[in-house]
Amino acid sequence: MSDKLFQSTNLYLRRFTADDGPFIFELLNTPTWKQFIGDRNINTHHDAVNYITNGPQGLYAKYGYGPWLVSLNNTGEPIGMCGLFKREYLDKPDLGFAFLPGFEGRGFAYEACLASLQYIKDAYKVDKIFATTTDANVRSQRLLERCGFVSNGLVSPPGEAPLLLYVLTLQ
């Protein structure tokens, strides 16, 4: 498939398109997304397409990177997102990820993060990246540490509760 940016053993990652609206609607309305990332008010298909246009596609246009759709190699089924975000309160890109509940705890997030980190090293001139998570999201903390991120204290996004800050130096 020509839209693949990169792949791993079980997964391929590509840029989001407006056709991914139904998937974004499903992912952003999962209980874990709302608990750990927050309600993005994606209440209609139109909201989901706007999220893609103003979120991932806006990041691609402005920074050349963004979050990527994660799909299974064998079926093409979309299962999550993984990639870089630009947070106004951080001076380097932030690695973010989220997966549908049926695909959590199966190693896909780890595989997607490792593949993304390799792609980021190869494709972008970034010396380090950050990741943030809530204190309650122990699974994300473990995944970040497994991927080589190191805890680096707290960061306080404007108007939000403090988040755990992780850093990974790329070489």
UniProtKB/TrEMBL annotation:
SUPFAM superfamilies: Acyl-CoA N-acyltransferases (Nat). It comes from the Bacteria. Residues 11-171 form the N-acetyltransferase domain. InterPro entries: Acyl_CoA_acyltransferase (IPR016181), GNAT_dom (IPR000182), N-acetyltransferase (IPR051531). This is GNAT family N-acetyltransferase. It comes from Mucilaginibacter rigui.
